[in-house]
Amino acid sequence: MKIAVTSMGRDLTSAVDPRFGRAAYILIIDTDTKDFKVIDNAVNVSAFKGAGIQAATMIAEAGAEVLLTGYCGPNAFQTLEAAGIKVGSDISGTVADVVVAFVEGKINYIATANAEGHW
Amino acid sequence: MIISVASGKGGTGKTTVATNMAISMKGECTLLDCDVEEPNVHLFLHPLIERSETVTTFIPEVVESRCTWCRKCADICRFRAIAVVGKKVLVFPELCHSCGGCQVVCPEQAIADGSRELGVVEWGTGAGVPVVQGRIRVGEAMAPPLIRKVRAAADSDGTVIIDAPPGTSCPVIAAMRGVDFVLMVTEPTPFGLHDLELAVGAVRLLDIPCGLVINRADMGDDRVRQYARREDLPILMEIPFDRRIAETYSRGGMIVEEMPEWKEKFKSLFRQIEGRVKATPRGRTAQ
């Protein structure tokens, strides 16, 4: 299964980026093989608007079924929901820790956005 | 003739100048409140609203039965107002800037005309002055199209005074573009000067003649006047930092009615602007 984790850096030892739409990187990790792919999110970091929507589209295209991040706003959440991606929120620590927590089923999934929309 | 009363910094006295000038020229002008995000002319003129019109803007409405999820609409939208995920198309109305690009690029004609309410335009008369005001819908972020509707509502032959929003961003440009004169209301403080310089920069780009009113003129320092001299900006009126003026304003009263000596001053301000507009060769860019 592929999961997406927002990250400050390009590898599994990086800290989780608490932001979703404007996260520095998003790592798409195969939880079975632990292989991962790096999405450089620079284009959304500096997006005028709609960063969350675009980031959600990108991880859907990458085949992620779960997103693990800190905060997720309403537009991003709506897009993720349409793509059938579950959202685990309030995530912190390193990406590797988060993958372990996911495999052990210690993730809190949310049913609504957990951050206000931002202008 | 269209005069736009603008400022850069907020709270310098745009509405005070616009309403008092309009009342002084009663019978000769229409007053437009183009500060649609917080219109306040009505607090002073109390217009009786005779007509109201809802203003809407285009947003895409996806006809799902025609859509093939090709994503051309999502790719062209720089505001990310459309997202395609799998076989679902999501529209985010509040992000849409109504350019219509999605409709143009859709090969399946799957995008129909939807609409989003921007706000209302209201017509009335207050204190004998015809007033048109815009009021943006709470939660709406896009003011310029509503401002353009307020401006379009004015009789193009008559004299129009526009109470513009503060700042230098898109709503201000919408309230200044194509007018005959911009009257900048400022105050002699560092903050007033800072924002005045930005606003004058915008007016220069739009190539519109400009003059100043200095409000609370006997406070602060001399730097606004030095700037005006340097930039060759005429100072057309100075309003002192006077307790009676402040109290009149605070009660929602008109200076020209409670302190009648000001009526001639505001008439003279209008005539000076008129003279400058007549002396300026026409042919500026249309709105």
UniProtKB/TrEMBL annotation, chain A:
Annotated coiled-coil segments of the chain: none
Pfam families (alphabetical): Nitro_FeMo-Co (PF02579)
Gene3D superfamilies the UniProt entry points to: Dinitrogenase iron-molybdenum cofactor biosynthesis domain (3.30.420.130)
Domain of life: Bacteria
Domain Dinitrogenase iron-molybdenum cofactor biosynthesis: start-end pairs: 13-103
InterPro entries: Di-Nase_FeMo-co_biosynth, DiNase_FeMo-co_biosyn_sf, MTH1175_dom
SUPFAM superfamilies: Nitrogenase accessory factor-like (SSF53146)
PANTHER family linked: DINITROGENASE IRON-MOLYBDENUM COFACTOR PROTEIN-RELATED (PTHR42983), IRON-MOLYBDENUM PROTEIN (PTHR42983:SF1)
Stated name of the protein: Putative Fe-Mo cluster-binding NifX family protein
Taxonomic path: Bacteria, Pseudomonadati, Thermodesulfobacteriota, Desulfobulbia, Desulfobulbales
Automatic annotation (TrEMBL), chain B:
Keyword list, A-Z: Iron, Iron-sulfur, Metal-binding
PANTHER family tied to this protein: 4FE-4S CLUSTER CONTAINING PARA FAMILY ATPASE PROTEIN
Residue span(s) of domain 4Fe-4S ferredoxin-type: 58-86, 87-116
Organism, scientific name: Desulfoprunum benzoelyticum
InterPro entries xrefs: 4Fe4S_Fe-S-bd, 4Fe4S_Fe_S_CS, CobQ/CobB/MinD/ParA_Nub-bd_dom, P-loop_NTPase
Name of the protein in its database record: MinD superfamily P-loop ATPase
GO MF annotation terms: iron-sulfur cluster binding; metal ion binding
Domain of life: Bacteria
PROSITE patterns: 4FE4S_FER_1, 4FE4S_FER_2
